[in-house]
From TrEMBL:
The keyword Nucleus does not apply. GO terms for biological process: gluconeogenesis; glycolytic process. Keywords: ATP-binding, Kinase, Nucleotide-binding, Transferase. GO terms for molecular function: ADP binding; ATP binding; phosphoglycerate kinase activity. It comes from marine metagenome. This is phosphoglycerate kinase. It catalyses: (2R)-3-phosphoglycerate + ATP = (2R)-3-phospho-glyceroyl phosphate + ADP. Its EC number is 2.7.2.3. The keyword Iron-sulfur does not apply. GO terms for cellular component: cytosol.
Length: 127
């Protein structure tokens, strides 16, 4: 039987770790109404941080149909992630391109990066 490796099995020191999370959380009156998906991601993110890695979070949120739409921006998740992790979360307004590259070049150990909604790009849903 193949043993599936866990985050704790890897040397993550000074490495950026791409983490696909399900942050498609429900909102009511402009606020997150259920934090379950965020809370369930915390052990993985904390383990990466504990091992001196930098979590780089990607996720989708809603169905924006391949177009940027602020109603579906993951920026709305930043405060909740930061509060639960007690760490600064750096939000990148894109999930591809030079802007992401620049953010990743400047991020420091102990920080967390959240990239913008993958579904703002048509390839995420059509692929």
């Amino acid at each position: 039987m193949v043993k599936i490796k866990k985050v704790s099995d890897f040397n993550l020191n000074s490495k950026k770790v791409l983490v696909r999370l399900d942050l498609n959380v429900p909102f009511r009156n402009g606020k997150i109404s259920d934090h379950t998906r965020i809370i369930s991601s915390l052990p993985t993110l904390k383990e990466i941080l504990k091992k001196n890695g930098v979590p780089v979070i990607i996720s989708h949120f809603g169905r924006p149909k391949g177009k940027k739409n602020n109603n579906f921006s993951l920026k709305k998740i930043v405060n909740s992630l930061s509060k639960h992790l007690k760490k600064k979360v750096i939000f990148c307004k894109n999930c591809v391109g030079l802007e992401v590259k620049k953010v990743l070049e400047n991020v420091k150990i102990g920080e967390i990066v959240l990239l913008e909604n993958l579904r703002f790009h048509t390839g995420e849903s059509s692929n």
